[in-house]
Design a protein that fits this description.
The chain is of the alpha/beta class. Helices cover about 45% and strands about 10% of the residues. The chain has one domain: 3-Layer(aba) Sandwich (Rossmann fold). The two termini are about 15 Å apart. Bound molecules: 4-nitrophenyl phosphate. The site of 4-nitrophenyl phosphate (4NP) has 11 residues, from loops.
Length: about 160
């Protein structure tokens, strides 16, 4: 399974999502490829925002080695699932989809927790108080990704 997490800058929300999902996948012995990207290019090559690193570390997850990359249409070809943090990210991704199959790979991450509500993971860049909220939301969503993979595994038996 290849999973891509996408936000705007790839320094706050999606690096956390990447770190949380990787942590859970490793715990479950799942050999997944997990990356993150931003629709914008401003922070390419940078480590995650110190506030995201701090909240991750507080939950026992090290995201300091991650480096920001910009989303590219190529990601739609190579990843199985692409999770957008908000509807603006979602629109920016799907306008590059060349096929229905590519479009169907993309979903809003919080729809895993509250289906069809199209809830956004709030952008914490200008609000320090949101980092823990963002962590908790992404933790719930990533829990669901792992749970869904269990269902898939059971079905294949
Ligand atoms: P992210 O947060 O999309 O969660 O990484 C942001 C980071 C940087 C900016 C905006 C959002 N920025 O405008 O530089």
């Amino acid at each position: 399974m290849k999973v891509l997490m996408v936000c705007l800058g790839n320094i706050c929300r999606s690096p956390l999502a990447e770190g949380i999902l990787r942590h859970k996948a490793i715990e479950q012995g799942l050999n997944w490829q997990i990356e993150s990207a931003g629709t914008g290019a401003w922070h390419v090559g940078q480590a995650p925002d110190p506030r995201s690193q701090k909240v991750a570390k507080g939950h026992g997850i090290d995201i300091s080695k991650q480096r920001a990359q910009q989303f590219s249409p190529y990601h739609l070809e190579i990843f199985d699932k692409i999770f957008a943090m908000d509807s603006s990210n979602y629109q920016d991704i799907i306008r590059h989809a060349k096929t229905t199959a590519e479009k169907e790979k993309v979903s809003l991450i919080m729809n895993l927790v509250e289906p069809a509500m199209n809830k956004a993971v709030p952008d914490p860049y200008y609000d320090d108080s949101l980092y823990e909220v963002v962590y908790e939301m992404l933790n719930e969503a990533c829990e669901q990704i792992i749970a869904n993979s269990d269902i898939n595994r059971d079905e294949s038996i």
